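Annotators were shown the component list below and the corresponding predicted structure, then asked to write short factual statements about the assembly.
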Amino acid sequence: VAYGNLTFKEYLGRVSKLSETGEKVRELVKFLVQHPERWDRSGP
Amino acid sequence: MVCEKPDAAARVARALDDHASPRKRELQGVTFFECSRRDELVIVCSALGHLYAVDSKGKTTRRSYPVWDYAWKPKHEFERRSARLSRWIHVISSLSKEADRFVSATDYDIEGSVIGHSILQYACNGAHLKASRMKFSTMTEKELKTAFRNLAPQLDFPMVEAGRCRHELDWLYGINLSRLLTEAALKQGRGYATLSTGRVQGPTLSFVVEREEEIGCFVPTPFWNIEAAIKHENQEYQLEYSKEKIPALAEAEKIVQDCQGKLLEVKDIESKEVRQLPPYPFDLSSLQAEAYRHFGYTPARTLAVAERLYLDALISYPRTSSQKLPPDIGYEDILRGIGTQRQYGALSGKLLGEGHLRPGQGPKEDPAHPAIYPTGESPKRTLLGPEARLFDLIVRRFMATFAEPCLRLSSRMILETGLHRFLLRGSRILRPGWTEFYRPYVMEDTQELPQLDVGMHIPIARIRALGKFTQPPPRYNPSSLLRKMEEENIGTKATRADTIETLYRRGYVKDLRIRANPLAIHVTQLLAKHCPLIINPEFTANLEAMMDEIQAQKTTRRRVLIRAIDHLRPVMLELMAREENLGAELSEVVSAQKTAELTFDSPCPQCGSALKIVKNRKSGKRFIGCTGKWEKNCSFSLPLPQFGSLSILKRKCKVCGFQMTQARSRGRRPLVSCPRCYAAKLRAQVSEATRPGSSEVGLREVPQTT
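Structure shown to annotators:
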């Protein structure tokens, strides 16, 4: 919504660079960068 | 007569003696006073806080659990650091044999009542049943004399029962759960660490851990603010866009594009008068919050300083939850007293000149004491920095509560171009009212509006879209954590600050912006998994409410204790059944935290090995040593503060880049210092002292501050 068309990879890159991002989210981002197939878009 | 502390005993004795010079006597190093009154001799002795406390009945090791049988015992019998209290009990006991009547003159609150009651019961051979109670809120001579003339015929037993119940409950929960956690971890053979939890400590720690979790799981969301300004008569005015947060970059850019270089039309100017009522008188928690906000004092430090002022008869009893000032404290006399001090003379004169004196009252009440107020007495000695600051805050707040409301003119100018609307806000003080009395502790922001009329046009001087991100919830600080405890009704006004200090001492939390250590997160998670009620604030708040009922004589201590034990027993049995699993998880974290606590991130500048906090086995002194001492023969070392609980901060020194350390001592400001800069200072002084012709004889101690 904020940036218009943003790919999933770009989104993760932006989130991991922000100082406000929590440590647990950072770990999750790291994991998703390595395993993008595990991202379930149909989830809640 | 039994007082709570030696300073209080001295003041009470001086007030009661006919010639204001009681005879000071000493027995086995314990001081007491003899006051001659017209028809009797009053012996005033003092306790040193609690002389008796709860401990397990009979002989048990300090490691066994669960323990259900307890008794009130002299503290020196089971606490090594309280050894000197045996002399106090012995002296009070021997003095009591000659006495024909007894008075408890301890502080008039739950803790004070328990202190007086236990001494009279155990050290004075059951004198609690015939003793009278002296009730006072300030240590002024006048109030002490009046209190002695109007002694209550018996002790305040409902308050005593509530206090005893609190001690017994805290002991039952604290001892059983803490021993279980500590022993479970110890049995895994990976080192010792005191792991504690309790009725109040558990929920308090869970607040910090919950916040840590929220921060850890936080995903920032972007948004944009429109920053715009107009220029009028060479002055710039900041505008607010009508929509505070713009959620998309494209939308923000469109607004900027639409408004760039356009003329704004003044559509409307609204003004209204706003009355700001004076602040409430201080109760303990609002005093602690205000002292933290203005001076950065932790709640424990504020309480310690306030108690000092109370013992000097400068302020009323600080452990109060009341926000009310009853007329019988004598408003006029106090203001006249305050007025004798040069800096308050004009302000107090102004209040006295206004005639009727009626203070603003807050909603909170305390049956035992009024809100905190200055007694009107002038300091008899020079007050130290923190004492002077806190005293000034209390005096100014007291005066502010009597003053008129502050009257402000709040204005809003609406400017538009096309579909876009901007706001310009201004505010001006019409009548300062109470703010005049509460300076410099009040924010007086004034923003005048430009001289523009409706229908006039003015160009936008600059406009841009500023990208920002939502922020994670802020970490608690000691003051906000105390406020949270109060909101949730956890602990009492007297014990909350101590509970927070315990969290630091146990290594569960660190830093002023409170950060939970991995150990705290694990302990809380384990308790949440196996016995969630222990960390449930509602459960603790329920127990607090039951203790209030004891004080109101709606229930009894026995009933509350039976209910609590019925709850605790199955929890303990369940935890004991899982002791091994618990221990394995805990010991791993304990061991990891111990290593992390002792090791610096900055490597040794000589050999590159890790630097650690080391203790000299012979002298017991601690210092920073290099782990390459044996392998690389590195002798690098740095000095450390020898007092207080030491922690290594993440912060780096601005001068040399080395990691800073922090030493925390009870009731003192944390000492933050750079060991490397301190060592450099010491070296410079040694070379100065040993230089030929130098007047310095030896090494002088340098205050270790940054």
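Statements collected:
1. The interface with chain A takes residues 215-223, 247-250, 469-472 of chain B (CB under 8 Å).
2. Chain B has a mean pLDDT of 87.
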